[in-house]
Write a structure and sequence with these properties.
By secondary structure, this protein is an alpha/beta fold. The chain has helices at about 5-15, 25-30, 35-40, 45-55, 75-85, 100-110, 125-135; strands at about 60, 70, 70-75, 90-95, 120-125. The longest helix has 11 residues, at about 5-15. About 10% of the residues are buried.
Amino acid sequence: MLLPTATFAARFLVEDAPNNSHTAGAQKQQEPPRRRKAMAEGLLTADASRSLVGSVDAFLFDCDGVIWKGDELIQGVPETLELLRKLGKKLVFVTNNSRKSRRQYSKKFKTLGLEVPEEEIFTSSFAAAMFLKLNNFSPEKKVS
């Protein structure tokens, strides 16, 4: 499994690289072709991916652009979510789009073939409502 994230890739691949005193350019030439390709594409190696996934209990996913683009599911998402669920990871789906309710987002996930309960979905409007509730904001008051 390869995860596209240049920041993590740089950290994990440097730690994963052979430890020697050669210059960075010389070390890059010594890297196996697959690792060089992963480094160039900003992807984690399989070992680094397993290590990362194993070290994390919960994963937060933005919805638009990460899970779907418009009304199309992004390739590899169902398999990734299934694997993370099998590993017992907690999944949380977040969005700053306040136009849809958690129920509406759950329905959108379902139309894309994904079973995501409302409890795993956090929209900006839900976060605002929870903030007001937790801070005992009077229902009689209005925010303008």
